[in-house]
Amino acid sequence: MRAMVPDGHAQHVPVVDVLTALGAVRSGEADYAVVAIENTVEGGVTATLDTLATGAPLVILGEVVLPVAFELVVRPGTNLKDIERVSAHSHGWAQVRRWANDRLPGVVFVPSSSNVAAAALLADTSHSVAQVGFEAALAPPGTGERLGLDVLEDSVADNRRAATRFVRVGRPEAVPAPTGADKTTLMVHLPTDKAGALLEMLEQFAARGVNLSRIESRPIGDRPGEYSFSIDASGHIAEARMAEALIGLRRTCPLVLFLGSYPAAFSEGPTPIAPGTSDHDFETARAWVEGLRGGKH
Description:
D-Maltodextrin-Binding Protein, domain 2; Alpha-Beta Plaits; four-stranded antiparallel beta sheet; 3 domains; 297 residues; 13 strands; five-stranded mixed beta sheet; alpha+beta; 10 helices
């Protein structure tokens, strides 16, 4: 959170999980939430993707990508040989499985709603270790010192170059102006099951020169075989090519959720624009059509 909202600029309110964080924004209890949405090991964070797609509208206002590393925290006096169970969020555990097999062979994984929640529960000495259900937790760097826990190992990670993408989420507001290196996030439902439905949806982007940096399916939940697609597209809704793609999706798909246009965290300069898809190209083409309607050939 501090990577997106510096200390002194906001009151930081810890919560137990993604659903609670986004629920607090929807209810007005919080102005914004910072939640993980994707990591380079496990892909999309399904709790975030699904919660953004259901309920009162929310939008992504910004993103940051941070390296993945954890610290192994325990109550004072606990040693590695004492650890039989470790708690962490499932996405966190997926990023340290090889380390755990090497350093804590035979250890049992105890799922937690978040990595911080596991450490906080361990730090609550009103409950015994037996009541807590685990001897150690994997937590973000600095958590052990803040909660008064011992750090047995730090920089815990299977892949030293792994990273997690976090987004700042708020209630809908006027979309900020494009920077030239932006990202737009959508949730799109396909029309009724038919051959070529996915291709038809993707063509709305391809025909306008809009590149997709992420696309993954999520079950709609009504019945097996029906899916929606969570999409990150390179570009901004204020740009003609992106706006035209959204118009095409709105015409051909039963549900299109706009989840925000915001500056991309990683950029090597302005988003490349394919020939014939600049704002000027679209304006020129529209003017030509208007001329035809008025009898100019």
